[in-house]
User: Fold 3-hydroxyacyl-CoA dehydrogenase from Bacterioplanes sanyensis.
Amino acid sequence: MEFTNVPAIVTGGASGLGEASVRTLAAKGCKVAILDLNEDAGRRVAEDVNGLYLHCDVSSADSVEAAFAASREVHGACGIAVNCAGIAPAKKILDRDGKPMPLDAFSQVINVNLIGSFNVLRVAAADMASREANSDGERGAVIMTASIAAYEGQIGQAAYSASKGGVVAMTLQSARELARQGIRVNTIAPGIFMTPMMAAMPQEVQDSLAATLPFPQRLGDPKEFGLMVQQMVENPVLNGEVVRLDCALRMAPR
Assistant:
């Protein structure tokens, strides 16, 4: 799929992996809209790439529909959608006193990470279906973000692992269902990346995490996530796939 002047929407685009995706797509010539709750950071990134910032809560149907409509008004119907919005609170099923995790804590993660991903997928697909197809019959590309925790969830990650496992399970099904409309769906499952949250950790913690990686033995650069986004858009036969981006890491229980 081409990039030049194609409207692209990135959720969670104000920082971390989302920001890297925004900058990659903008550098390739896309008209990018950043959907995020962080207005200050979102506007900063949008100004840097001559893009558009839109306040959006991915867990809300009305918020996502309104954001896509606003982006469509300025840039046209979305051709590329990258969903990076997500949360990762850690909470055990039973705490030290044997009390169960509050159900609301589990539901919140599912609402943002899984329902939010589907929310963006469904609205993006409706936009893309209205676009003119290219010579392959392609109208759009959706990229979702899972995690290696979908496969090797660590202690305290019950909600996060479940939410990302749902994204993985949804990938092939969505690609099959949307094939008739010429829409590809792929997912990236990142390992340990140097996001702002990670950068705020002590150096010794960063070093200990890097030491667990087989090769290369360093944390991923968000630009490398952006590169995978670029490759998923560019390669027309890459569809229905979940790609682990993790230096061959297999997570231990804790």
About this structure: The domain at 7-192+225-235 is CATH 3.40.50.720 (Rossmann fold). The beta strands are 7-11, 31-36, 52-55, 80-83, 140-145, 183-190, 242-245.
